[in-house]
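#struct-pred

JT: dropping the chains for the assembly here, can someone run the whole complex?
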Amino acid sequence: MQDSGKLNLILQERKTVDIDPDPLTRKIFLGLPEPGLTDNRADVDRVRQELIKILSDRVNIDLDIMRKIPRTVRESGWRATAVAGWFSWGWKLVDLQEGDTTARHFGLAVDIGTTTVVAYLVDMATGRVTDVRAGYNGQIKYGEDILSRIFSARDNEGLMQLRGAVTDTLNGLILGLAERNGLAAEEITAVSVGANTTMVHLFLGLDPRNICVAPYIPAVNSPGIIEAGHLGLMVNRKAPVYIFPGVGSYLGGDVVAGILASGMHRRDELALLVDIGTNGEIVMGNSQWMAGCAGAAGPALEGGVAACGMRAEPGAIYKVKIDRETGQAEYHTIGEGPPVGICGSGLVDSIAELFLAGMIDRSGRFRGGKNSFVLVPAGRSGTGKDIAVSQADINNFMRTKGAVNAALEHLLESVGCGLADIERFYAAGAFGHHLDIESAVTLGLYPDLPRDRMVKIGNSSGEGARIALMSRQCIREAEDIARNITYFELNASQEFMNRFVSSKFIPHTNLDYFPTVKRRMAERGILKE
Amino acid sequence: MQDSGKLNLILQERKTVDIDPDPLTRKIFLGLPEPGLTDNRADVDRVRQELIKILSDRVNIDLDIMRKIPRTVRESGWRATAVAGWFSWGWKLVDLQEGDTTARHFGLAVDIGTTTVVAYLVDMATGRVTDVRAGYNGQIKYGEDILSRIFSARDNEGLMQLRGAVTDTLNGLILGLAERNGLAAEEITAVSVGANTTMVHLFLGLDPRNICVAPYIPAVNSPGIIEAGHLGLMVNRKAPVYIFPGVGSYLGGDVVAGILASGMHRRDELALLVDIGTNGEIVMGNSQWMAGCAGAAGPALEGGVAACGMRAEPGAIYKVKIDRETGQAEYHTIGEGPPVGICGSGLVDSIAELFLAGMIDRSGRFRGGKNSFVLVPAGRSGTGKDIAVSQADINNFMRTKGAVNAALEHLLESVGCGLADIERFYAAGAFGHHLDIESAVTLGLYPDLPRDRMVKIGNSSGEGARIALMSRQCIREAEDIARNITYFELNASQEFMNRFVSSKFIPHTNLDYFPTVKRRMAERGILKE
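RK: done, full complex below.
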C-alpha cells in the first residue's frame, strides 16, 4: 500500500467553510478535590460532577470506565484527563487517563469509497491533518461495482465477509498511521466517515438488498454516532464514530460530507456540486433549498479499472498533452518518477487530448481502425510494459460521462433551472484534485460554465469528515442537509435513460451547450464532422 | 431454593405512594406506512420517526437493532412492536418485535441483600407483582458479612468471582420465574435493583476496597441505568437496569428504594425509617430535608446466621409465645407445616419472650447457667434435630440491636430531634414483614412510639424497585432522595462507639426511653433487677 504525500494537500488547499472548534471528542484535564469525611462523594460521581461543570451537559459513564476510575484517580493523585465523546444524545466518558494528556488528541477522518479508502489523521488540538493513508477497499475481491457487492452480501455470511473486508482495510490504514506517527491506535478517540449508502451499509453490517430494488429503500439513512468497538475499529473502542447521513440509496453520506465541506448550504448563491466517483452525484441549491440525484457513473475514473489505471499515487500519470502533429504524448507523474499507470485525471486528459487531436471521434471511437493509444512505450515505463489508453477504457469513460450529463440535465429540468443560473460550480471527489477542468469540460463531463465560477474542492468527502471531527455544529448541519435535500430517484426514470443514451457524445449531442468546446473544436478543425 | 407464596404479599399489603404509570420500558405497537417512491425514508429512520412522534423524545437505535429492522418490518407487513427503554439520557430501542406483542410486557424488581436475593416478576401492563422467587446470595461462600466479602474481592479475580456469584444467583431466579410463568427470559425488558452499597459494587464488578477504609468513599453512588447485557443478566440483553443510588458507603440504594416506597419524601410529617438487614440503616426527615446513618448490625436476623436460622420460607418459625409458667413455647411456621428453623422475626419473638419470661436478663444472658432454649425438640421438628435459640444467637442479636439503638440516638441528636417529634415510623426490610412490633419494642430494637404511628412496610427495597419499574418520575425522585440526604458517617465517630456499648441492654440502659416496656416489665415482675 502506497500513498502520496500530496494527498495530504487535498485537505489543505481550499477552506470553504469557517468553523468554530467544538470537536466530537474533548480532552479535559481534571484537578479533582480529594475526598474526605466532609466531601465523601463517590469517585465516579466526583468525576462526573466536575465534567458536568465544564461541559454544562449530562455525561454518561459506562460500566467499564466506572471500573477503572477509582484506581486512575488515586494513582494519578486526583489529576486525570477525561476524554469526553459526543453521542448525539449527550456526552459519554470515552476514557480517563492519568495526569494531563490534553496535548495528545487524535481523530480520524475517513472516506470509504467503493474502490479506495482514505484515512486522514487529524490533530484534534489544531484541527490539522497531520498524515494520510489510502488503500484499495478490500471488498474489491467480492466485486468491483456496487451491484456485485450487494449481490455478494445477499446472505449474512457474505455480508459479514464484506464488512470484515472494509474494516480490515481501514484498520490497516489506522495501524499504519499510528505507527508512522508514533502513537497508539487507542489514542485516536474520534472518527468520522463519509461513504456512499452501500458502503455505509456494508461497513455497518446492514443488509443492503433493498438498495437496488424498487422503491430503493436503504436500511438506514442516518446511522448517527456509533461506538468504534461496535464497528470493530482498532481505535479507542469507545470512540464516537460519526457516519455521515445519506439522502437515499444513491445519494450518500459522502456527498453530504462534500456539501458540508463546500459550504454551499450556508450561502445564498445557487451552486452546483458534481462528485464523480463510482456514481456521479449531483446536488444543486443554496442555503434555502437543495436537490440532488445520482447516475451510476461506474468506476471508469477510479484507479484500477482502466487497463493501465491506478490510484493517484507516485508514478501515476495525472497530466497529459498530445502533440497533434507528432502524435507524441507529453505527461507528468505524481512525484515525477517513472510512469507506472494512469490515474483518473490522466485518463480524462488523455481522452480529451485524443479528441482534440482528432484521434478519436465524437462518439469516442478511435479513428483508422486503432483500438488503443500508447502513452508510454514499454521501454520508458516503470513497469516494463506499454502504458496505453484502450478503446474499452474510453467506452467506460463514455458511460460515466453520459450518466453524469444525463443526471445533470434531469436535475436542472426538475428544479426548473438552466446552466446560466449556476453561480458556483464545485468539482468534488478525490479524483478531481488533479483533474484539468478544461479537459473535463472538453469531454462534457463538466458543464461549460465561466471558469471563474468553477472550483475544485478535492476530496470533499474527506474534508467534510475532517470538519465533522472538529465541529458538532457542523454535524448538526450535515444532518439538516441530508434531511432537506429533495432527492430524485433516477433508477425509476425512463426519461433519464433516454437522456443517458443521447448524451454519449463528446462533449454532447447538442454542441451549443458547450460553446467554449465548440470554439476550440473549430480552431482545431474538428468541428465539421 | 424455596420460596414462600406469602412473600408475594409483601409487595401488596400496603401502598404508601401513588404513581402515574410511566414505566422504564414501553411497548409501542407501530402500524408503519409502507415505503414507496414518494416516501422513500429508510427503514430505521421510518421506525425512529414513528417512535419520536409517540414518545416526543429522541430514540437511540443501536447497530445490532438496526441490523434486524429491515427484515422485521418486512416480514411483519410493516406491523411491529417497539420496546423502548429509558436510559436517563433518552430512550433506546431495546427490541423490535413482529406484530402486536404489547400484551406481554414483563419487568423484574430485585432486592440484592447480603444474605438473600429476592426477584419479583412484574407485569408491566398492570404494575402488579405476578410472582416472586428468593434465594441465598451465592456470595455467602466467600464470606458471610460485608467486610469479608470486600476482603474476598481484594484482587480482580476475587472481585469477578463475587460478581459472578451474585449474577448466577439472580439468573437462577430469573430462569425460575420465566419457566414457572411460561415466558422467555428475554421477554423481561426492564429491571430495577435495590441493594446496599457493597452489593452494588460487587454486582457491577466495581472495586469495593475504599468502602471500608477512611474516609469511606465508594467507587460510585449513582450508577444510573445500565444495559442488562453489560451485567450478564439473562433477561433481554438491552433491557435497562436501574440501580438505585446510594448515599454513602453504608447507606445504600436499598434504603433509598425503601424511602421511595414509604413515600416519606413526599410528605410534610416527620418520619423515621428503620431498615434492619445486615446493616441497621436509619433515615429521618420529610419532604423538606432528610438525614441518615447506618450502624453495622450484622446478619443476626437474616436467615442462615443463627444456629437454627433460616429465611422466611415454608417451615420457618416466625411467631413465638413462651408460657412463663411452663416454659413451653407455642409457635407458628410459615405455611403451618413442620418447623425446620427460625427466621428473623421468630428469633426476635423468641428473645423478647425469653426476656419477658425472665429466662434471660437485661444484658441478654441466660439465667441459671443455661446456654440455649429449645423451641422445638428433635422429635417434633421437621429436621429430626432440636430447634433452639442459643446464647450465641442472642449475643449476635444484642450487637444488632445495640448498633441500631446507637445509630438512632446519634441521628436524633445530630438533627436536634427527640423521639416525641416522630410522627411516623416505618419498619422496613424483608424481615420486618413478619416481625411483631411489640417484640421489637420490648427488646429496644424499635423505639417505644405510639403504636398508631408505627407502620410495617415489608420489603420496601423490593417495593421501591417495583415502583421504579413503573415510573420514571419515581426514578427521578429516588435520585433526588439520594442526593439530598445528609449522611452521617458513624465509622468515623467515637461517640457512636460509646453509645453502641451503652445500648447493649434490653431494652436500653435508660429504661425511661421505653415506657411501655418498663410498664410491662413491672407487670411481669422483672423490673427490679
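JT: nice. Chain A touches chain B through 48 residues (CB under 8 Å). The first strand of chain A starts at residue 25 and ends at 31.
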